[in-house]
Amino acid sequence: MSILKPRNRLVNFRLTDEEFAYLREACGAQGARSISDFARSAVLRQADRSGSSEPSTQALAELHSMLSQLEARVGQLGQKIDAAAETSPA
What we know:
- This protein is mostly helical.
- The chain is built from 3 helices and no strands.
- The model has no long low-confidence stretch (mean pLDDT 86).
């Protein structure tokens, strides 16, 4: 696979042994090709989030999903309240 834009800039930061182990585990869990690729993607994702005043499409989709789940749970709670009110003596 050829790289269309060569990566010729270097960003360097230090980690503790524990941080490095955590990063290596996260890299493996996400299926990244290397720690470098994983770190690059994470940093660019974070920069994209913090540099924009508009939420991303993914963030909006996640928010929509969370709201749908909340609506469902509130509906379930309402049903339980109604059922409890019907069975309790007046």
